[in-house]
Amino acid sequence: MYTTTEILEQKIQVAPTGELQDTGDLVINIGPQHPATHGVLHLVITLDGETVKKIEPHLGYIHRSIEKMCESLSYRQFIYSTSRMDYLSAHINNHACAMCVEKGLQIEVPRRAMVIRVLMDELTRIASHELWWGAMAMDLGAFTPFFHAFREREKITDIMEESCGARLTMNYIVPGGVMNDIHPDFQQKIKEFITQFKSKIYEYDEMVTGNIIFQNRTKGVGRISKEDAISYGCSGPVARASGVRSDIRKLYPYEVYNEVEFDEILETAGDSFARYMVRVREMHQSISIIEQLIDNIPEGDFQAKTKAVLKLPKGEFYTRVETARGELGVYIISEGGTTPYRIKFRSPGFSNLSALEHMAKGGKLGDLMATMGTLDLVIPDIDR
Amino acid sequence: MDNESIKSQVLEILPSATFDETGEWLNILIESKSWKTFAHQLRSPAGLNFDYLFCVTSVDWKTHFTMVYHLTSTAHRTSIVVKAKLDRENPEIETVSDIWRTAEFHEREVYDLFGVKFLHHPDLRRLFLTDDWVGYPLRKDYDDPINMIKL
Question: Could you tell me the domains of chain B?
């Protein structure tokens, strides 16, 4: 443990001065403004020549203290701030919070709402993976894939916009069900999207997956073993690429996930290419889930009848869902009032980032981009 | 592995532990000074094998802090919650970052926002806030008249 003076002294030692130190190490900064960090992440990297010796993430550039804010917001209001955490999985964040409140109040969600929620979740997952895929290829120097990814992603955001009224921060899933019923064209538009997606997805493999330059830059890069992935608390595609069974949809099914058929994608290599393959294959699984549900949206209410003011009973409630990035946990401690006493978001990106140094240490600086790209970091999710 | 067998195994390791089964998972309440040795035994592959620490946080109860650790065993697929009470004036507990590597970041976060000191932590500094920040925002008595949203 350090005293304040020691902390300050240590800060001076690792300060991002960029000076050559006595050991011959070079300290460089990546970010907070850098295209490869996809947001305001600041990495202080100690290099020995081209080899990475140490990575120190400096966080907090977009820390809004959402947990503290939520302590003064009601159970209907706090969900809106969670769309701003992992903005690419806004639906799934809302979903986790709504489920946690429902668990506390023991609200029975109508089946129609459950199916709509799962459809939205899977569309979000595809949209998120599409964006990651384009940005990841761009990190490694291929610019064209970005446009191909956005061609399909745009369709999904259009579908979202029709039903939710928003393209990014949807706030569509609320305690008791969903905010409003789906748009009449919802099913038709999704079917069109699936047809388009299936006719174009081969381009992804042609352009990037089978590309020899891409494979050489990702295979064997940023490897993490199964044991280490568990120890670092990795979840989502990062853990599954190392062979850790971690899909919450399979392990602790929620909503209608136990009724649909899909595979939990597992790879064993644990390198950047394995993480890439997990996400690409997951998109196919999401399409399959959507296909199974799209013609089976039951009639009925889209929202359960709930009181205007929600009061959770005294106690602790924890829900976990699988976002596009991994396991999101929502932990509410209630004292029986209209606002949570304490709320904690266990965000997937935070734990995945902590494994970055372990993955990239000893590798080359150029490989760090591939490793960071396949971690799929969303900084507001880490900072909260 | 059901709660009863976990309870009996925990009592063998730590006779002073008490339990609370009102929540979704088994809550194990321990004294903060016994945490480190207890954690080693929770993690030991031959024993309970809780290898996945998925959530570390703290709660300010105005009179004391409670450290909350959520653990899962990837082999047995069971989850438990370990809680340790900390003194509010001088909150400190042993680090477990050498047992579960993910704890290093999570403990820095708790130190940053609650001011809980983790003894023998390899790099205990503020994580989100600047180094010259005064106070610990997630404490209940923290007040920021400019930046805080109150309704």
Answer: 3-119 (3.30.460.80)
